[in-house]
Design a protein that fits this description.
The protein is of the alpha/beta class. It is 43% helix and 21% strand.
Length: 270
Amino acid sequence: MLDLYELEQLAAFGEYGTLSLAAERLHISQPTITRNMRHLEDEFGAPLFNRTKNRIELNATGKLAVEYARKLLLEAEQAVKQVRAFDQRQRTIIVRSCAPAPLWELMKSLEKKHPGNTISSSIAQNDEVLRSWESGDCDIAVLPFAHRCENSEPREFMRENLFVCVPAEHELAKHDSLSFADINGFNFLLRTELGFWDSLCRQKMPASKFLVQTDEFAFNELVRSSSLPCFTTDYILHRSSDYYGRMMIPLTDEEAKVVFYLLSRRPGLV
């Protein structure tokens, strides 16, 4: 049976042209590679080299053997990579969520339930989450609606309601509740990676402009020092009741009151 280690030496000889240089590059002795080349000839059942007193070179059969050796070595390398990737995938839980809050809650649960697993997560728009789920690229999908499919029954995970967050002196602060129509036209601070919340606000507020902040510290400083309104949710408010002294005004639109659903590819995963 062909030995990959010996095939690697044959391929090296084909590349470097001499046994001594091939042995040097592979960090083995020249007698070892000489012995292994003779063994390969026995395995192939054909001479691979033209030998003279001071020189050895590949014959036509040997050149063909080098081509096959390179292909077999490449296939072996790919096989190892694929097996390792498969093994890693078996121990990795991939989560795609349409919003941050359900992802945060889900991560806490998964890390506790599956301490030996790697958990890969990301926030995306609804259509991106759906594509990832339907293509089999994720194990868990979080959506703001109950998506019916053959291999998983959606289940309610959590609820979240959107609030407008304004300084006490802001003109919107006089309201007990607001709608998207009421705030359309006001400029807002906005965080990145909000998933579908981002697209919802932009869709419902076409006359507004958004100052988007990628850095959490910069965003919080602007919330603290500027008069621009921003958004928060009851999920955040339950964890931080004092949001820099701002007023929290609920949005009455049905779209601002969200039920998040989970799709899980494997029973008992969540």
